[in-house]
Sequence to fold (271 residues):
Amino acid sequence: MTRLQRRLAALGAAGRKALVPFITAGDPLPEATVPVMHALVQAGADVLELGVPFSDPMADGPVIQRSSERALARGVGLSQVLDWVRAFRVDDADTPVVLMGYLNPVEIRGAETFAAQAAEAGVDGVLLVDLPPEEAEGYRQALGRHGLVLIALASPTTPPSRLAAVCAQAEGYLYYVSYAGVTGASRLDVAEAAGHLAQVRARTRVPVMAGFGIRDARSAVAMAAHADGVVVGSALVSVLDGSQNADEAAARARAFLQPLRLALDGGPVAA
Fold:
């Protein structure tokens, strides 16, 4: 059983909802990435999604686009991202790390080389936003040979035939995009998303994480009622923006995530 499988199985056995924060590697400061990762775990993160900066993040809204631009301006690339995962693993051998990004950096290396490098660094899974499911099998096999999983994506606009294929192929967990659009928008309709989530969860054997539109404890609890966990990205990236040093960024990350963890575990939800 892989590190990701163990973590998700433990959550399921305990009846707990997964909390999956996303940050852009290298933002708000390159030296803050590893401290922020540790701070998020201390605050209750179950899985970390680490965004690989990319010049054309077409699925992302302005907040994450700008964070990617800032990281790229500081020279952050995939090699440095993998170095940060290695550094994180020195003190944390248990928390799963999923790289989230786009196909081009993987293509440049080649799927097999990328998979080997990511596995050696301590990565557990990869989510490639612009990889069509019809073209994913070669990448899934390359990752699988090195013990990594390819996280699948589904959304309200995924056609039924493609949704069936995505659900059948899903490994680790399935990332469900709660609405059609880019990250960071504020039009989450929980009732509408709930119906789609019920269909997706009925079709797949892996946990389903709901992302897009999760901004605070209240929205996290509302969506988690219909999913196995939630992903929070733009709101967290926005909170980190402007941090002057690694300690400040880590403190901001911890303060943001703790109320979400508390609320998902049945604690109070701030008004």
Remarks:
- Residues 9 and 39 are 23 Å apart (CA to CA).
- Strands lie at 18-24, 48-51, 97-101, 125-128, 149-150, 152-154, 174-177, 208-211, 229-232.
